[in-house]
Amino acid sequence: MKPGIHPPYGPVVFRDRAAGFAFLTRSTAAATATAGGRTIEWEDGNTYPVVDVEISSASHPFYTGTARVLDTAGRVERFERRYGKRPKVTAKGPSDA
Fold first, then answer.
1. Which UniProt keywords apply (predicted)?
2. Rounded CA separation 78/83 (Å)
């Protein structure tokens, strides 16, 4: 790697305020977090830069189990009722199926 062209890589706390969840990891996002002056005292007693995120694994519907499954079969049937079925197309041409 070329020296002097990469952002600093260090510890940073990512915080999901909606879920009240935070985790400590290492990231280059610490450079932008310290520019804003936002820091947090972590469980180990040290102060780290903090980055607020809108969604994390603690609040994402896929990970929390609140994800909805779309009823694709029902949507197709509703479309066919509204607009009618399409004629089946074969190699010879359309047929009335």
1. Ribonucleoprotein, Ribosomal protein
2. 9
